[in-house]
Amino acid sequence: MAYLLKIRMKRSRSVFLLDTVMKYSLDMICTIDADGCFREVSEASRHILGYDSGELEGKQYLSFVHPEDRAMTAGIALGLAGGEPAVSFTNRYIHKSGAEVWLTWSAVWSCEEGLLFCIARVSTEANFAKQELHVRAELYNALLKHEEDMLALLDSRLNYKYVGGTTLKELGYAPEQLLGSNAKDFIHPEDVPKVQASLIEVLESEGSVSVPHFRFRNAKGEWRWVETVVSNRLADASIGALVANSRDITEQKAAAQKLQESELRFRALFDNNPDTVLVENREGIVLDVNRAGEALLQLKRHQVIGRPLACFLPPSAASVCLEHLRTACCGEIVKFVLEIEEGPESKVLEVTKIPVSVDGEVVAVHSVIKDITAVNRYHSTVRQHADKLNTIFDSITDGFFILDRDWNFAYINREAERLLSLDRKHHMGKNAWREFPAEVSGEFFRQYHHAVETGKAVHFEAYYGGTNRWVEVKAFPSEEGLSIYFDDITEKMSSRQELEKLSLVASKTTNGVIITDRMRRIEWVNEGFTKLTGYCLEEAVGKRPSELLHNHTTDTRAFESVSDKMMSGEPVSFEILNSRKNGEEIWLSVQVNPIYDENGVLSKYITIQTDITQRVKSQQELEKLSLVASSTDNGVIITDADGLTEWVNEGFTRLTGYTLSETLGRKPGDLLQGPETNEAAVRVMRESLKQGIHFSAVLANYKKSGEKFWVSMDITPIYGSAGVITQFIAIQKDITFKMEAETNLLKMAQDLYAHNKDLEQFTYIVSHNLRAPVANALGFANLLTRIDKGTKVFDTSLANLKESVFRLDTVMKDMTRSLAYATAGGL
Amino acid sequence: MEVFIIDDDELSLFLTENMLLLEDETLGIKGFLSGAEALEALSSDGIPDLIFLDLNMPVMDGWGFLDALTPLAPGLRKSCNIYILTSSLAPSDAARITKYPFVAGLIHKPIESDELRTIFSQHRKK
User: Fold this and answer.
1) CATH fold for domain B51-111
2) What is chain B's alpha carbon radius of gyration, rounded to the nearest angstrom?
3) Which residues are CB-neighbours of A441 under 8 A, at least 6 positions away?
4) C-alpha distances in Å from residue A790, one per residue of A280, A458, A776, A779
5) Quick one: pLDDT at residue A9?
6) Which residue among A300, A330, A781, B31 sits deepest, i.e. has the most Cβ atoms within 10 Å of its Cβ?
7) What element of type H or E holds A472?
8) Nearest chain A Cα to B16, which residue?
């Protein structure tokens, strides 16, 4: 042994020799380093401890030492390392099978190498002496092959006669815990019947019987699955028992279970995979296909398996597949898109080929085939939509842009570029407020923020100074940001402003304005209408203008004459006498304009009314006056302010013989005055004309024929609006006849006056000459009654009475004579 | 009491004188056939208490006589009442008399007794 050690220490001498010793020595030779690990172990370890030298090298030697002997062994090793000389001792190792192995050791510490050199030999004597063996060596031998299992010897009623083996320890039982007890007490009640069945089988047979797996309770009370082979050795004199070799197969069973589950899971995944899964070998022969594959190929599995995949593909696709199969066979995962044209429809397949390698060699290729026709179509549809959307956004007349949630431009259409002077290339992705700082806090800024904060769309009109435009904006907030549509309403705004001005005019003008629908029903009237007619808007709406304004006194002929023309859509104007709400008459000049909508259909009428009552009245008056002026017998002359004739009427011509053309531009006096015209009267006339007052005059005038006539003139100055005389109107009346009559009357009056004088005389005569004798007669008659008869006074009085009566008679005779004369000869 | 009667008509003169005398026989009556005569008598004999004057007379009629008396009017009114005694009923005469304020009244012929009595009583009041 020392020799061998020497050899080992001086390995340079003969490596071959050492290797031979290490390989073939029946003793286990080993070195252990300072850390307590096997450094080298001879091959004898295999039959001594059940481990190959490789399994031991590098491991802690103490872990293989029987736990009860570890302290002692470690103590000895420590002593050796501390300089004690070589020792020899015995300890227990644990065999790979779990059995104790008594070993006798020789060990020495080599300071030079820092290693412990040891040689171990199985201490058979010790093994036999210290093991409590209840059976003989034959028994042990008979059982040897099953040593790693639990070995049990049972009687025919399954009472334990002997137990041993590693499994027993794993179950946590000491042999004495089982000895004498019945095996069925440890078996799961559910499993007892099948064990019982096996027992019967075993008792009837000579050989071995595998008992179906059953559950066996371990020391902790857990159920362990156990595999048992029982051989009937009851007849064997040396054994005389049922020999049961048992193995704990709980883990295996669980693993099997797992394997099965995994297999099932794989199968399920394979079969139920919505994508086609197809397995080919290197030659492209189909080995398996799942249900989705059946559907894709429209064939049953058995029709596919064993045939080349190329049979089921159009030639072009088949070649592509083969090429990719070759690539996959080189160990690469290949992914490609295959388009298969089948009739009118084409299929788009996404194929992934995954090589399956066994020992570095590709034996099969799994193909996962996804039908992405729909997805593809969807994508292309989406792309088309996007393109279309782009085209639409570009072609819509509205400006359109999108701001993302950080106010960056996400889209800008062409109209937006134009209206807002944006540039897609420049502005896309830029922050709107940084690009347009002038708009920060402006109308757009506020509205957009409002939309984003409230999540509600905003709609507003605003002025954009950047391009000097009015825009109508609609902004719709969404998850992505803000979609903004806008429209250039600059023109609309200006026309609206114009319209507002026009409406102001329409509502404030003194003219009446009526808007009616096609059927002439009033939709709107202005204040001017109310002022003119007395009807307010509320009263007028829905009625026809004629209903309001015509009544039985209204002369509707003017309206009726144009009504058809108006209803046929032509603009008309007419003058009509209407009736106000309070019944007053009002003359209106009416213009009705039809309004056509954009389709050229008559939609409305706009009526403008002007109050012409004053004008019509003056016109009527004027008409009457001209009638008077032209048809009167009186001569009428109109001169300008300088007295030059502007117009004469027919009466003038009849009166004077001068026609209008003969008098035009001349002074009437120059034509008409003559030798007997009173100079003084002419002077008075001139004076009055100068003062501009109305006056009358009587003059002797001369006709064109030279005939003299008397004329009475009424001259009225006409004042213009400026207070200056513009014209004179002279009205002449021929009073020649009147003048002659006056002359006659004067003479008659004179005659009458003379006549009256005579009459007065006559009256006087009557009063004196006639009355005197009557008075005397009365007096004497009275006197006679008062004086005595026979006196001289009586007689004289009587004579005087007679005389008085006589005188009376004479006067009467004279008077009669005078009257007769007067009657006959005139006064 | 002195009374002048001036009348160119003797019949009327006689009638007036006798009517006066019937009322008062003591009257001193002088008759004149013209105004001129009477004027002469006035200037020679003085002014009487009563004068009855006819209007319609030739040469100097009643009006002429009154005109002639006008210068003496203030004196006349105190002592003498002049009455126009006329047969005329012409209203013009009555109007004309008002121009002569010293004339006491107008009497239409023939003169009546009551009128005379009134004249006398008026005169006595003076």
Assistant:
1) Rossmann fold (3.40.50)
2) 13
3) none
4) 214, 156, 21, 19
5) 53
6) B31
7) strand A469-478
8) A779
Which residue of chain B has the CA closest to A786? B22
Residue A600 exposed, middle or buried by CB count within 10 Å (0-12, 13-18, 19+): exposed
**What are the tokens at A457?**
């769309």
Would you call B88 and A763 a contact, using CB atoms and an 8 Å cutoff? no
Q: How far, in Å, CA of A789 to CA of A781, rounded? A: 13
Q: How far apart are CA B120 and CA B111, in angstroms?
A: 13
Restricting to B residues 10-39, those with a Cβ less than 8 Å away from any Cβ of A are: 11-12, 14-16, 18-19, 22
Contacts of B93 in chain A (CB under 8 A): 767
Token reading at B50? 């009563």
> Does the structure show a pLDDT above 90 at B52?
yes
Q: Is B90 on the interface with A (CB under 8 A)?
A: yes
Query: In angstroms, how far is the first alpha carbon of chain B from the final one?
Result: 13
How many angstroms separate the CA atoms of A655 and A712, rounded? 12
Phi and psi dihedrals of A800, rounded to 5?
A: -65, -35
Rounded Cα gap, residues A534 and A580, in angstroms = 6
Q: Is the pLDDT of residue A555 over 70?
A: no
In this structure, are residues A175 and A168 in contact, taking their beta carbons and an 8 Å threshold?
yes
CA distance A62 to A536: 122
Say which amino acid occupies A523: E
CA distances from A623 to A291, A614, A746 (A): 111, 14, 42
Instruction: Please state the domain extents for chain B.
Output: 51-111
DSSP string, A595-661: EE-TTS-EEEEEEEEEE-HHHHHHHHHHHHHHHHHHHSSSEEEEEETTS-EEEE-HHHHHHHS--HH
Least confident among A225-239, A653-667, B99-113: A225-239
Q: Tell me the per-residue pLDDT of B96-109, one tens digit each, with 9 for 90 and over.
A: 888 888 888 889 88
Region A14-30: what's the mean pLDDT?
78
Rounded CA gap, A726 and A744, in Å? 42
- The residues, ordered by sequence, that sit 6+ positions from A198 with a Cβ below 8 Å of its Cβ are A209, A210, A211, A212, A230
Among A767, A786, A787, beta carbon nearest to B89: A767
Beta strands (DSSP E) in A322-412 are 334-342, 345-358, 361-371, 399-404, 409-412
**Partners of residue A775 in chain B, C-beta under 8 Å:** 12, 87, 108-110
Residue A57: what residue type? E
B-chain CB neighbours of A787 within 8 Å are 18, 22
Beta bridge partners of A150: A246
Choosing among B8, B16, B18, which should be mutated to test the A contact, i.e. which has the most A CBs within 10 A? B18
Q: How many CA atoms lie within 13 A of B34 on its CB side?
A: 6
Strand spans (E) along A64-159: 87-94, 100-110, 115-122, 150-154
Q: What is the per-residue pLDDT across A513-523, written as a single tens digit (0 to 9) for each?
A: 888 988 889 98
Higher pLDDT, A212 or A826: A212
The helix-helix angle for B10-23 and A792-825 (nearest 10°) equals 140
Strands (E), A204-290: 208-217, 223-233, 241-248, 276-281, 286-289
The tokens 């005659």 sit on which residue?
A751
B22 vs A contacts (CB less than 8 Å): 783, 786-787
pLDDT mean over A758-780: 80
Distance CA A143, CA A156 (A): 19
Instruction: Please give the single-letter amino acid code of residue B23.
Output: E
**Residue A12 — pLDDT band, cuts 50, 70, 90?**
low
Look-up: residue for tokens 């009446």?
A512
Is residue A386 packed enough to be buried (19+ CB in 10 Å), middle (13-18) or exposed (0-12)? exposed
